[in-house]
Structures are given as C-alpha cells and as structure tokens.
Amino acid sequence: MKWLAYGAACAVSLAGASALAQKSAADAIADYRASLQDGNPADLNAARGAALWNKARGPKNASLQGCDLGKGPGVVAGAAASLPRYFADADAVMDVESRLVHCMVTLQGFKREELTAKPYSSDGQKATEIEDLVAFLYDESRGMPIAVPTGHPKEQQAYQRGKQIFFFRAGPYDFSCASCHSADGQRIRLQDLPNLTKTAPAQAAFAAWPAYRVSQGAVRTMQWRLYDCFRQQRMPELKYLSPASVDLIAFLGVNANGGKMAAPSIKR
C-alpha cells in the first residue's frame, strides 16, 4: 500500500509539473507578444494602407473613400469588426477582403483577376497592397466590439455552411478544422490550439487576425490564416475569397461576437 501511495503521489506531482510547464510556456509566449506590440511592424502596413485608401488610383482614377464596408460610404471605424455581412449591391455575404476587392473593382476599375492573382506576399517580400489595406481597415476597428450580424437569411445560411465546413473531415489525414479547434487544452509544440466552439477562445482568436508573423516578417490576413490551415490539413487549396472561405469566417466571427478587436496583432 505504501508503494501504491508513493506512486500515486509521484503521478500527481508529475502531472502538476507538466501543467505548470505548459502554463509557463503559454505565459512566456503571451509576455513576448505583449512586449513587441508597441513596436508592431504592422503599424507600418496600416500607415501604407491608409495612404492607399485615400489615393486616387486605377483606371477610374478614384480613391476608396466611397467604399461602403457596411456602415456607409467611406466609414471605416468599426467596420471590420462587423464583417462578414450581407451586401445588397452584391447580393452576397462578404468578409473584409472580398468587400475590399469588390470596391477596388467597382470604384477604381481594377480587374478582379489581377487583384486576386497574388494577394499574399512571400517571405521576405514587400507587402501586397491588399495586405496593407487590410491592416489599415482592421487597425480602424481596434478595441471595437465584434458584432458579426446574422439578421439576413443569407447571413444565417453563411453561418450554417461555415459550421459544416468547420466540422467536415476529409483529406489524407481525415482532418477537419475541428480536429485541432474543438477541444480544450490541445497544443502543437508550444502553440496553443484554441477551442473555437467556445466563446472566450473564439473571441481571442478572431480578434487577433490579421497579424504580423515574426517568423515570416509579414502581415498575414484572415483569408491567409484559413488558406494555411487547409494546407496543413493537406486539403485542396482554399481559393482566395471563395464562398467557402467567407462562410467559414462568418462562422468564426459569429462565435466571437461580444469580444473586442485587437488586430493587427503580433504572432511568432
């Protein structure tokens, strides 16, 4: 009995030490991010994005100041915190990036296929115009409450499709988004995997994108985040601005309602 009691005590001690080590690692990463936030390089992206937003450009020589992001033409404060949403002029639910591209096409005369051919910069390359503009738009929603609407039937449908995509298992690993993000306490190495089916972790995750990735030296948008998740699942490539991508963002955004935007954030 003595040995059983000793073994049980050791097991409890080791479990406690493991939990402490995990907590310490998570805390260390959080402290590291906080220390860098005041000097977040994404601030430079946002400044460039603001200049692009106000500059007359494209075949129509127009600025984006007339772009309606859901709060009226030219209103950017808090707009990103309320997207995706339904837009009657396009008869579609759009996220920040799909609405931005829509405005660049309709107001400035750019060709959609040219804008979407390379929306993400490669490691070490200059940021794309879309990355800079997205950084600006989200910076204008920093601290604003997340309020992704569900009042329109198409918004409700987008949410339900996004939920189905989140739990859909496929690919060579039989993975889904939920494989990593529907349970508490999961990790990959030092990286916590938030349970996106619960309110608090969903709020924290949604609020933090787009983000400046230190390891890549680049701002990465929400569309990129989903694209990379699909890549890691070995799923077919998620097409930029596809309805599936917008639906999934709608699902994540509604789950995060009530949180406060903190993007562009900074991540490893």
UniProtKB/TrEMBL annotation:
This is SoxAX cytochrome complex subunit A. The lineage of its organism: Bacteria, Pseudomonadati, Pseudomonadota, Betaproteobacteria, Burkholderiales. Heme c 2 binds at C177, C180, H181, C229. Binds 2 heme groups per subunit. Belongs to the SoxA family. The active site is at C229 (cysteine persulfide intermediate). It is found in: Periplasm. It catalyses: L-cysteinyl-[SoxY protein] + thiosulfate + 2 Fe(III)-[cytochrome c] = S-sulfosulfanyl-L-cysteinyl-[SoxY protein] + 2 Fe(II)-[cytochrome c] + 2 H(+); S-sulfanyl-L-cysteinyl-[SoxY protein] + thiosulfate + 2 Fe(III)-[cytochrome c] = S-(2-sulfodisulfanyl)-L-cysteinyl-[SoxY protein] + 2 Fe(II)-[cytochrome c] + 2 H(+). Its EC number is 2.8.5.2. It is an enzyme of class 2 (transferase).
